[in-house]
């Protein structure tokens, strides 16, 4: 009996694995893979002040090439569960649609890859190379005790990955219509401008920090670039301006603003910080200010080549159409793989992710399973 992605997805959805809870999802997957001959490891990581996170690493085979599938079994909360047509952790199927938290983000894709890998292995007993699952329980949370540490752990064990597919829901309208070959970087900061508070009627005795802050915000919102071969233009959004002054007759002593930049490969974190600081200095003149930076995530792109070609050809064989190679949207755990191996994201249609009644057509699960199966066939051929 071939493994069915639907059955695996239902079993996973029925586990209440809302970050940071394991909820039985990793246990289920570990058991499934172990029975198929995978060597499995449960790896827990912790950090002071954060909940301990359970992760799973499973591998079959010894040689090269080494293909890794990466994903997360943790899910975002269901919200008001009474608003769901089908209970959020039921895994109900109605009219050919599977409902449940994680159906598309991303228990569904894990199920598809598990079914694809197990069926591939059953049909190719002497397959060369290695297949691994690197599954975290900490993607929707702080992402501190998940993929980053699991990759370090695997490296310390001597594991070397050649290529990785992350199963985030990248498809836009139809399964396989889009592969994310890269992700923009993200950099956030808080600008604090120091002034001198005083009476609004006596501005000569005060220094209003809002004047300098407005100038700085103008300067940093100027275009950062014109886009690049694989990326749209970088963009900075001011997301908050905070003075907190309730009085009309008081010049405040301090003003703050927060911003987020989504940047392309014309920049690195370091060069972008330098650019924004220089613009701010020029705009602020003699006024004192500082920028406090949040932990950034860097930009990456897996340039089209043999690996991306294999993926595209596999998708086209199943769907009849080559996928778009995109770098739009938010970040994913793929950013942590870029220092280890070539990586892309390829998963289900993301329209209902994080929503009430998250769902996927069962036909989409079958189609993604067929795509993953083709990828494995071509990759190990
Ligand atoms: Zn996800």
How many beta-strand runs? 19
Spatially, the strands of the biggest sheet line up as 1-2-6-3-7-18
Strand content: 25-35%
**CATH class division of the largest domain:** Alpha Beta
Ligand catalogue:
zinc ion
SS class: alpha+beta
Distance between the termini: 24 Å
Biggest sheet statistics = 6 strands, mixed
Tally of DSSP helical segments = 9
Q: Helical residue percent?
A: 25-40%
CATH-assigned homologous superfamily of the largest domain: Zn peptidases
Q: Specify the overall morphology.
A: elongated
Low-confidence stretches: none
Can you name the CATH architecture of the largest domain? 3-Layer(aba) Sandwich
Total individual domains:
2
Order of SSEs: HHEEEEEHEHEEEEEHEEEHEEHEHEEH
Radius of gyration (CA) equals 24 Å
What key phrases describe this protein's structure?
381 residues; alpha+beta; Alpha-Beta Plaits; 9 helices; 29% helix; binds zinc ion
Describe the structure.
Helix content is 29%, strand content 25%. The protein has helices at residues 5-13, 25-35, 107-123, 147-156, 209-221, 269-284, 306-319, 334-337, 362-379; strands at 39-47, 50-60, 66-72, 93-94, 97-99, 130-136, 163-166, 178-180, 182-183, 185-194, 198-199, 235-242, 250-251, 254-263, 289-293, 300-301, 324-326, 342-345, 359-361. Helix 3 (107-123) crosses helix 9, helix 5 (209-221) crosses helix 6 (269-284) and helix 7 crosses helix 9. The longest helix has 18 residues, at 362-379. The structure holds zinc ion. Zinc ion (ZN) binds next to loops.
